[in-house]
Specification:
The chain is of the alpha/beta class. The protein has 12 helices and 7 strands. α10 crosses α12 and α11 runs antiparallel to α12.
Length: 303
């Protein structure tokens, strides 16, 4: 340490070092001066490139902070170049293959979303630590274009809800028509239900065959500058159906909030009026998730 002191004093006496902020600022630990050294981000920083941390570091070292300033041809990844081009244009891009693929989906269409909880210490017999256990689902059913029905399930008892949830779900989804989801989470939940309810396993296997994951379709066929490198439903939805606004919901606005609300809902110490309010917030949130899927298919299917 004594040998380093003169060098450190020299650094302190000199000008501010011109070192670009990069991965070295957080490895192995985040530097306490990171906020001081980080320049204000432009509206579309190069760091928004999906799975592009290394590329973003290279661009920053080359002097590119705003993705719109990166020249055509600089990015090797086709996805990165697509994101750069659309961002620079300021106009959304719907690739030609997406609308007909969505329009070809048969009726009735079922838009499905689960909410699940993970307990570090299981509270229901036969379940494991940190197992994803569904306690709620929402399903909008579109029997004909624009003709919507809504079904839902929410356990409020605190008892193991899997049997009642599963049986109600099978009734709501029937035996025909695609089941539209966003990501692989719903398929994972169906596997969990089949494992816990072996007498229904065959029906859940058949149901899994009807799943249509919209995420890879949208990721391959649609991008809007406002998505800023993300294809999450909450990034995509405001660009196609801004009237469906999660910020207008109550206490539950995302999956983490739903888990917290459910824990409070099943807590015997929670007052009845509070339980009623939490149940209503959970219902509104989950219903918005599935309505969002329907609007996504409708709007992007138009081209």
């Amino acid at each position: 340490v004594a040998a380093r002191v003169p060098a450190l004093q020299s650094v302190l006496a000199g000008e501010m070092p011109e070192v670009v902020v990069g991965p070295h600022c957080t490895d192995p630990f985040e530097c306490p001066f990171l906020g001081h050294c980080t320049p204000p981000e432009p509206a579309y920083p190069v760091t928004l490139l999906p799975r592009g941390a290394a590329v973003a570091a290279e661009l920053l070292a080359e002097g590119y902070a705003d993705l719109r300033d990166v020249p055509p041809g600089r990015l090797v990844s086709a996805t990165h170049e697509w994101v750069r081009r659309v961002t620079a244009s300021g106009v959304a891009d719907v690739r030609p293959a997406l609308p007909p693929r969505l329009r070809a989906l048969s009726y009735p269409r079922h838009y499905l979303d689960f909410e699940a909880i993970q307990f570090a210490v299981p509270i229901w017999a036969g379940t494991r630590p940190y197992e994803q256990l569904p306690f709620q689902w929402s399903c909008h059913v579109e029997r004909a274009p624009g003709v919507l029905e809504h079904a839902e399930f929410l356990d409020t008892s605190g008892e193991n809800p899997l049997r009642a949830l599963a049986e109600a779900l099978l009734v709501a989804l029937g035996e025909v028509g695609p089941v539209l989801v966003y990501s692989g989470f719903e398929k994972q939940v169906l596997r969990t239900l089949a494992a816990h309810l072996p007498d229904l396993a065959e029906r859940f296997a058949a149901l899994a065959e009807r799943l249509v994951d919209l995420l890879p379709l949208v990721r391959a066929g649609y991008y809007h500058p406002a998505m800023k490198g993300s294809w999450s439903i909450k990034a995509v939805l405001p660009t196609v159906a801004p009237e469906l606004d999660y910020s207008g919901l109550g206490e539950v606005r995302d999956g983490i909030g739903a888990q917290g609300a459910y824990l409070a809902l099943i807590d015997p110490a929670t007052p009845p009026e509070r339980r009623t309010a939490l149940a209503a917030d959970l219902s509104r949130y989950c219903a918005l998730d599935t309505l969002a899927l329907q609007r996504l298919v409708y709007q992007l299917g138009r081209g």
